[in-house]
Amino acid sequence: MSHNQNSSDISPSLNQKNERGPLAIKIAAALERLSAVVTLLQAEAARRYGLSPLQARCLLLLAQLAPQEGTLTHLAHEFGLSKATLSESLKVLEKKQLISRRPMPNDRRCETLVLSSKGKALVLALQNRLDPLLEVLSKRPHKSSLVVWQELLHLIYTLHRVGIITVIRMCFSCMHYEAKSEGHFCRLMNKPLNAEELQLDCPEHQQIPLSSQNKDTPVS
Known about the structure:
By secondary structure, this protein is mainly alpha-helical. It has 2 domains: 34-130, Arc Repressor Mutant, subunit A; 140-212, no CATH class. It contains 9 helices and 5 strands. Helix 3 (22-48) crosses helix 4 (53-64).
């Protein structure tokens, strides 16, 4: 290594890291730690019912989606996986009679995946996977939880705006949402929304093209 090189030439990533600030780095590390907890709880719940984590996630996602959205293409896009990779997991779920294929109402040449009654019952069991985390969160002061909720929504929306989170069904990216001076408003329901009513995964979500979305996060 040349003695004439300065520190910025040697370790640009280190300098960039320092410029982002220690608090931002700590928050990112904390989010990573929480993500690991959620992943662990999901894996344990899936294993308990003889599923892989991806198979369990498929069931949980199908429970949230509108019927017309339950296509292989849509699911692959949601998970950021190839159709071939996801297809293997779906075949297992079909074999276990947890899901079935049905023709799309508006185009019978296309198929949509729906939960069977057995699959719906399993989803109810899988939804308890986060109980240990929920127990801790429920003991936090309501005001503090509300602040965290709004900050997380704004963070997710910002990550969507810069292209890191591609699939999103939250209020801020929906054509029915309006940020008014006095707060949040849903045009579909024709009513104001308080922070607790804001949705992260809304079944009625109608995506606004990214170019038409607000560049700034909406009001709190």
